[in-house]
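new request in #modeling-help
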Amino acid sequence: MSIRALLAAAAVALVLAAPASGGGTPPGKLAAYGYHLYGEYCLACHGGNAAGRQHEPAYAAGASPGRIQDRQAGIAPSLHGVGALAADFYLRTGYMPLPHVGVQPRRGRVLLDERQIRALVAYVATFGGPPIPKPHPERGNLSQGLNLFTEHCSGCHQVVAQGGYVTGALPPPLEDATDVQIAEAVRIGPYVMPKFTTKDLSAHQLDSIIAYVDYTKHPSHPGGWPLGYLGPVPEGLVTWFLAAVALLGVCVVIGKRLTS
Amino acid sequence: MSRGAPVTRRAVRWLDQRSGAAPFLRKTLRYLFPDHWSFLLGEVALYAFAVLVATGIYLTFFFVDSTKEITYHGAYVPLQGQRMSEAYASVVNISLTVKAGLLIRQTHHWAANVFIAAIVLHLFRVFFTGAYRKPRGLTYALGVTMLMLSLLEAYMGYSLVDDLLSGMGLIIGYSVGLSLPFVGANLMSWLFHGPYPGQDVFWPRMYIAHVFLFPLLIGTLLVAHLVLVAMKHHTQFRRRKAQTEHAIVGVPTWPGQTPRSVGLALATAGVLFLLGGLVEINPIWLWGPYHTYSSTNGAQPDWYLGWLIGGLRLVPSFDFTIGSYTVVPNAFWGGAAFPLVVFGFLYFWPWIERRITGDDAFHNLLERPRDNPLRTGIGVGMVSWVVLVFLAGGSDRVYVLFGITYTSQIWVYRVLVFVLPPVLGWLAWWWCRELQRSERVEAERHEAEAEARLARLRHGSEPPGDPGAVET
Amino acid sequence: MSRVRDTLVAAALLAVGRRRPRPAPEAERIVPERSPNTGAETAAILLLAVGALFAVAFVVVYAVDSLPNHTQLLGASLGLSLLSIAASLILVGKKLVVTEELVEEYPPPEHPHEQELIGEVMEESGSRFTRAGLFKLGLLGAGGTLGLALLTPAVSFGPLFRITYYFGTPWRKGRRLVDDKGTPYKASDIEADNFYTAFPEAIPEPDKEEEGAPLILVRLPRSLLRLPPELQGYDADGIVAYSKICTHAGCAISMYRAPLFQPDEPRPALVCPCHYSTFDPADGGSVLFGPAGRKLPMLPLEIDAKGYLRAKGNFDGAVGPSWWGVRMRRPNP
């Protein structure tokens, strides 16, 4: 389902659902604008009053049935209590709006401009929940960060944060993740990622993890061309397509060929 | 020879008087090397091995073969204060503190990758030209054995480092050993001194195997391999009329071959040192230390074991059990049975071929791949089988890069590994026959044209052209 | 003295670069004469000089610590030095030394006469034996047993037959679960949608590297939990504990697929990053996908009066990768 179709559906849904939503226009100019944008972009899936559409089959939102693994029923979660933190994360990474219901949100083009994002964040924040975090990676400890990252994150994201695979989903590489986004994602656990509360990871531990992830964006590579920090796969490619080709070339220069 | 004779002559005299080696030296200097580029692939492997030994000896002066847990206080900040084995700490130290240590370590690792690649290329040449046929069956079997030993040797080499990636590789190897029917658990308990990770003695054991036992074995087989090659002389392609099953045409060791071979040796070392300095390989400080309870996504073995991770991933979920007895644990199929079949094929192919063709004769002349469609077809089938399984091992990365879901790729590969090799083998067989046919047509055309020209010459209907053109 | 002088003369000759042409009668030559190729010769000498320069550069780079990209400069100088000399030698081989293509007979495929002689020597050497068969048997027996005897010390490597090791785990009834710092877990520490690594409590420190030690802990909503009858009561208030070591190839299971929005996303699963064996934590660890041939061993849990998590017994099956006896019995209680 294309974005345009989704928008059309959203517009229809807005007309139908708006009168039913009890919340109405929130106080504050920014949040009010956010309310308007919510109707335009989010309402079709997250429902009136941001209460979610959790017990409806997905084809109600246009997804073809049977397409998604282990389908139960539901279109989108409620946004009550997710707070500015989650809204900020999903909008600034381009995770939302989704191209269609039931797929993993992927980093992509951010559809909204800065003012629109702030407005939507303000609107979602009116339903309660945590504010946008302010991480301080400079206070973190790099070594502790690597240790925690190995314990909690590297299974999916790869130890140098180059991304990986988990059955049914793709943990993304973290090269484009900003400090704030990392802090947000850790607390949210988007898609199938685990969710870490402050009891699981203190603010200081989180700072260390962010410091480490920032380090992985430009790790030291005293050995030369780093080959994407992926290890054996690109090394094998270099072995065959660089070293072996070069040495075959030398052999051909030295030796005769059958047709010459 | 009196005083004042050139230095070389005096040196030869000196040596001969003390060893009687002059006849042998003279023969060696005039030993003939048939000239073809593909005969140099084995040499590349030999020189890579020399680089491995040289760089490896250097590394032993700094490596610590101990799994004793220590706390790192070295120069690399992200590891400071971490608990790790002495082995891992020593390699981090070689990489980041010892001057030129990283160059030597990286060159050692690149040399291993290139060594095995060169052996494989050499094996392809030997296989697809029938060089393994009588009287070189033993030479060939030694070569295949060296390939197998080299895989184990290289695997132990990167396992010794004890970084996160290598630890995961080691426990997978242990699991494959454990999965051997009837004896696996006993064998692994014996090697590791108890179940994984075993006792501390395992690390020195693996170390001495890597730096002494296996290099000694490979070195000995290498010498035997080369002696056998020299005793039976090289094979040759039929490039000239003088090249027959009984007469060899080639360039003598001296002066023709020596500068080329030494040049190739230096070129091999040059490429390896360039890679060692310019392209980062196995940046173990980034992977962090290994613990049984930690792991990372995207862990892959070095390329030459990539076919095994593919095999391990492709096998569907089942253990073959009778009652409570587990006859074949799952990891056996991809990790042990698969390579055993491949190496079994390599060992027995010469015998199988003799059974099929009934050709029991001695051969010094090589066949081109097209000259023997059956062998080429079967070889292409085997190679494509291994390559497909190898590619299956990279499905997760393909998903990350191209978005084709992992599960669907695995199912496609599960079918392809059985369907594609026979198809490709048949295609290769068919193509060889087509090439042969077109060559025959070409030869007939040449013959007819030459005849026609000769006839025209005889009848004087045309002024004689370039006489050279007639002869060809 | 004379040797020294000769060496000096030879060095001087080399330095001058061109030897006095030695007039030799054509008939005596072994290596045929060819005309000089001064262009190639100059190039070869220049390449050698370049190689020497790069070799010097390597030493200089090694000595100067302050250079950036030290390893790259070292590798480049050494590599280029080797490649320059290689190029020089290949040039010499291709263009300068006389390349003869000689013909020679292959050695005979076999030597029947020699084979015959060796056989004869072998056979005739035993003429004084009257019971040759028995002697050979004795030789074989003695050699074989001696060989075995010499191999015997290798048995000390490790226990060949103590299979019980594989059923040992450090878990016992009542043992508390601690994190990697040694802090005991309370049931309330374990939150939904996250995973935790736990070890058995021990003083001073548990052996965390032992395969039987590490656990992966998750809390599932009661509605999702559907443990089979024999595993009823293994969970503690929805908290389930499994061995962290994959039953396929022994890697640590370090991925927990924890859907944020249950209706729309793949259900919770424990995944091993090596070969993507995927286990269902809700039904006792059965295999959902991937090569593992055996379910993940589950550890029964209980919550003590102070709220700490404790083992209620040992795993329901042997931990670690599969082997021939892995299904024969449970770990020691």
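bot summary: The CA atoms of residues 76 and 174 of chain C lie 62 Å apart.
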